[in-house]
Design brief:
Shape: globular
Number of domains: 2
Pfam families: Plant_tran
Largest sheet: 2 strands, antiparallel
InterPro entries: Harbinger_derived_prot
Distance between the termini: 15 Å
Number of strands: 2
Radius of gyration: 18 Å
Strand order of the largest sheet: 1-2
Protein name: ALP1-like protein isoform X1
Helix content: 40-55%
């Protein structure tokens, strides 16, 4: 993901959702920034990272990391839902060993690849 897209998502989430707005705790210490919260969510999605694997890298706990992912996904769907387009392409030559990984019960038994594109009208 390029930097300008990432910063735009962080900026939009910060502007629209209190969870991504930086606050202070009881002692007056600054909370976790929107940049760190979004980085946590993106890393979990991109690398299939478990929430507690980001503890040392981003200095956030497992529960906070899970919450970041949940709020990030909900926010992106709400903000950009109409710009997200998904297309299922059947995979006719799918190797037998991979058939279960690329099939879902609610989409029939044939394997497919899901292509997703996000684009706004100005792009």
């Amino acid at each position: 993901m390029n930097r300008s897209l990432f910063t735009r998502i962080v900026r939009d989430l910060s502007a629209n959702y209190p969870y991504f707005q930086e606050g202070c705790d009881v002692v007056g210490k600054a909370g976790i920034s929107a940049l760190v919260k979004c980085t946590s969510a993106i890393r979990q999605l991109a690398y299939a990272a478990v929430p507690d694997s980001l503890d040392e890298y981003l200095q956030i706990g497992e529960k906070t990391s899970r919450d970041c992912l949940m709020h990030f996904c909900n926010g992106v769907i709400e903000l950009y839902g109409e710009d997200i387009d998904c297309t299922k392409w059947p995979w006719a030559q799918c190797p037998q060993a991979y058939r279960a990984q690329f099939s879902r019960g609610d989409s029939g038994s044939e394997p497919f690849i899901l292509l997703e594109a996000v684009a706004s009208q100005d792009l």
